[in-house]
Design goal:
single chain; alpha+beta; Phosphorylase Kinase, domain 1; Aminoglycoside 3'-phosphotransferase, Chain: A, domain 2; 2 domains; five-stranded antiparallel β-sheet; three-stranded antiparallel β-sheet; 47% helix; 19% strand; globular; binds adenosine-5'-diphosphate; binds magnesium ion
Length: 247
């Protein structure tokens, strides 16, 4: 298989175009189980009728694991926002509509969001008291079964001829949509605080959700994110986690 053109390079992988396929080549040392999980989750999501690039196979290329899928020709929603900032509101609207449609779906084979968050909080490196507080909030939260992407950001949505495709399914679970929205909000806060607030306002308005339902999830989702140790994120995450004291 010829890797014709590098499309994107992230912390853990490189994405290449190869004919009408996109090939996600994972860095050496990336866990095999995580690659297979991403392919498995995408296959489950395909079954429930969400618009995503179909996974074709997982293989080894030059000693590295790679996942091949349909190549979606188009632009990510992030690219569109950056190239056309005057219309950012329209793009945020699209993001919310796509996310609401996803939350309307069910996929009983996915892992539970609560289990994943619990695991991550336990591995966050926070002290025992803080972990206990956060796990108590998590335990008391309403149990839902909505499809949650776990990394629903404008970078993980590709628009092709006006049709949206959601990509990057490694973190998908079933659970409470407000937690998924809190995660998107956190990502947007790190990107652009104004767009983040616009997003939250729009989501709450369209879904008739009280803002505090999403805000309640912020410390929990921030603590879970802390376990990823992404450079540059820690200060903001720590601030969100500390909010828990004032609730
Ligand atoms: N199937 C695809 N078709 C076209 N572009 C893709 C496809 N999959 C990924 N990309 C591009 O590669 C980028 C990174 O892919 P993604 O799966 O989100 O990796 P990461 O896990 O590193 O975020 C995307 O933002 C998008 O620009
Ligand atoms: Mg991505």
């Amino acid at each position: 298989m010829e890797l014709e053109q590098l499309i994107a390079k992230g912390r853990f992988n490189e994405i290449y175009k190869s004919g009408n396929l996109a090939v996600k080549v994972f860095n050496e040392g990336y866990a095999k189980a995580d690659v297979l999980n991403e392919a498995y989750v995408a296959a489950r999501i395909e079954e429930i009728g969400l618009n995503i690039p179909k996974v074709k196979e997982v293989r080894e290329i030059n000693g590295k694991l790679a996942m091949t899928m349909d190549m979606i020709e188009g632009k990510t929603l992030l690219q569109m926002m950056e190239e056309d900032p005057e219309n950012v509101e329209q793009y945020v609207d699209m993001m919310v509509d796509i996310q609401l449609d996803m939350h309307s779906k069910r996929c009983p084979n996915l892992p539970k969001l609560k289990d994943k968050l619990m695991d991550r909080i336990n591995n966050s490196g926070l002290d025992a008291t803080k972990k206990y507080e956060l796990l108590t909030i998590l335990d008391g939260a309403p149990k839902h079964k909505k499809v949650c992407h776990g990394d629903f950001t404008p970078q993980n949505i590709i628009i092709s001829d006006g049709v949206p495709y959601i990509i990057d399914w490694n973190h998908a679970t079933q659970g409470n949509a407000s937690a998924d929205v809190a995660r998107s909000y956190l990502w947007l806060c790190l990107y652009n605080a104004e767009i983040a607030d616009l997003y939250l306002d729009k989501f709450c308005e369209k879904s008739q959700t009280a803002k505090r339902y999403v805000q309640q999830w912020l410390p929990v989702v921030a603590a879970a994110r802390l376990s990823k140790h992404v450079p540059g994120e820690e200060d903001l995450l720590q601030r969100w986690i500390d909010i828990v004291q004032y609730q």
